[in-house]
Amino acid sequence: MDRIGYAVFTDKSIWLLGKNQYTSNVESGSTRTEIKHWVELFFGVRVIAMNSHRLRGKARRMGRIMGQTMHYRRMIITLQPGYSIPPLRKKRT
Fold first, then answer.
1. Of 90, 53, 92, 89, which Cα lies nearest the Cα of 73?
2. CA separation (Å) from 67 to 40, 61, 70, 92?
């Protein structure tokens, strides 16, 4: 369950909740089958579709040195009608 990060709450992701689709950030090395298995096992739901895209890390400066935050993957998980999951844990600030 460590590979599933936190739930994403944007305008689009909130709109997708009405279509029984949940959005979450996951580690960039995760595969679709791993995430599908973990979601079905942990939440006890049936996943019918998964969409994903990779997001690049943002550039960050620390003094004179330019760095970058970690790359990550965002998954949009579609559940069968009648199933739902509670919101995933919030990102710590």
1. 53
2. 36, 6, 10, 21
The DSSP secondary-structure symbol of 20 reads: T
pLDDT for res 1: 54
Angle (CA) 74-75-81 rounded to 5° is 150
Residue 24 has pLDDT above 80, yes or no: yes
pTM of the model: 0.76
Measure the CA–CA gap between 58 and 31, rounded to whole angstroms.
22
What is the model's pLDDT at position 85? 84
Q: In what order do the strands lie in the sheet with 72-79?
A: 4-7, 21-27, 72-79, 47-55
